## 1
Amino acid sequence: MVKDFRKNVRFEKVGRITAESICVFQGIIQDISLQGCRVRFPAVINPDPEKDYEIVLNFLERTAPESLILLARIQWFEAYADSTEIGFYFQHSPDSKKLTSYIEKLCKEEQECLCPSL
């Protein structure tokens, strides 16, 4: 879990993102929250921040949803020598309820880690 001055708590979860209209390669999820995620793509790209994108998130942990189909808008992006990092903001999507359930589960797990039963 990443705590900073954000509205929603971000969780560092391992997973992949498919966004074919942005990049032919899958991206790696750096962190996720109820409102968005940070992703690194293994290519230098120049996405359109005014466009909405359909993205598919797949997590590696067994207790996560198999996949989430979400509509997202780019909040920011930064290109590096061999990759591009993108911050997505989630729009209302077909799997918004599954995302909410997953984030609530992560919050509950985090609370249990912080305050284990005696």
## 2
Amino acid sequence: MQTAIDRNPYRHIPPATKQRTDAWTASARNLVSKSVPFLNLAVERLMFAERPILQMEARLAYRETAPVQNEPLLLMECSSLAMLWICGLNEVTRLMNPSESEVGNAHRTA
């Protein structure tokens, strides 16, 4: 008997990051207007990209007591992912501003 694969990414979020996940989900729900629905997905992608960055940062911060294997590579990987995360956040912010002004204009003209 073959079991179905659980493809819901939210079911695989570790309990340690549940609070941050809830905050990201609330941000997506409260900040993104219905006129630009794909922004919700972009905010969700930032949430999923944040976790490995935080894990790498924790490993690098722990190095004071124990050396981290492949530390230069880990530092560059963490730095690169953080820069891409910031570019993603910039894109979300850039796309949110016009959608907010459209919503504001719709309220003013009504």
